[in-house]
Amino acid sequence: MSKSSYFFQIAIDGPVAAGKGTASRLLAEKINFLYVDTGAMYRAAALLAIENHVDFSQEDKIVDLIAKSDLEMRNPEGNKEMDGRLTTLILNGKDVSWAIRTTQCSDGASKVATLAKVRQILVEKQKKIAETTNVVMEGRDITFKVLPEADLKIFLTADLTIRAQRRHLQYLTKGVDKTLEEVIAEVQERDERDMNRQIDPLHATADSWILDSSQLNIEEVVALIADKVEVMIKEKAKHS
Ligand code: DC
Q: pTM of the predicted model, to two decimals?
């Protein structure tokens, strides 16, 4: 059975701080799909490396750690998990939803994400998840690598300065002391790393809907996508 005959797949790619996480989470909630934050899986790989004292460059050891681990991702549930997180990630029975958000994990994630075998094992896991349920899956390679046959592909982006301003605001609320200029440089550096890496560099596919959120708030972004999905689901039902 081809995937398109069964579960509905929404694939969202885009640069850092474009609002992919929040938009995907809210969209998933609205249409009752599973939100899959693939960045969280690269972060979990980095956490495994840190906890096991493995250097971020040791590809085979990291792959081995991932292969031996149990990784579960779900929408937050119950009062305990309503603490501002976008997704709940259980790694070997432990809730690591916040542990993967440290600067150390963020930095490690961007390093382990350059390793071909790490990407391969995580992409396989992501494909498997999408075979079992309707998903809003978000990352940097979803539209062309993980779910190339997704029902809806979106490249969510925004101007560099606007993305940096949003990130700067997030930092301020978390008490992180950085100037806007520093954040612009940081976002630019992340863009360059994501778009110029050797394996699966981030890009917008020809069949992606390029959604520029520079002039939109998050609710407007979610409403635009949800409207489109509603029409598509009705169409799909008619033809199945
Ligand atoms: O979206 P994020 O910041 O949580 O992602 C963490 C790192 O993983 C980031 O450096 C980009 C990388 N990543 C990736 O290479 N491919 C994905 N599908 C998702 C994230």
A: 0.93
Q: What is the pLDDT of residues 74-87, one digit of tens each?
A: 999 989 999 989 99
Every domain of the chain and the residues it spans: 9-33+136-240, 37-133
* Sheet (strand 71-74) strand order: 71-74, 88-91, 94-95
Please name the fold of domain 37-133: Rossmann fold (3.40.50)
**Which residues lie with the beta carbon below 6 Å from any ligand 1 atom?**
38-39, 42-43, 109-110, 113, 139-141, 194
Domain 37-133 in the same topology as domain 9-33+136-240: yes
Architecture of the domain made up of 9-33+136-240: 3-Layer(aba) Sandwich (3.40)
Contacts of 92 (CB under 8 A, 6+ apart): 69, 70
**Which band of pLDDT confidence, cut at 50, 70 and 90, is reported for residue 3?**
low
Ligand 1: atom nearest CA of 110 is: 10
Neighbouring residues of 54: CB distance < 8 A, sequence distance ≥ 6: 48, 61, 62, 65
Closest Cα to atom 15 of ligand 1 = 113
How far, in Å, is the centroid of ligand 1 from the Cα of 150? 19
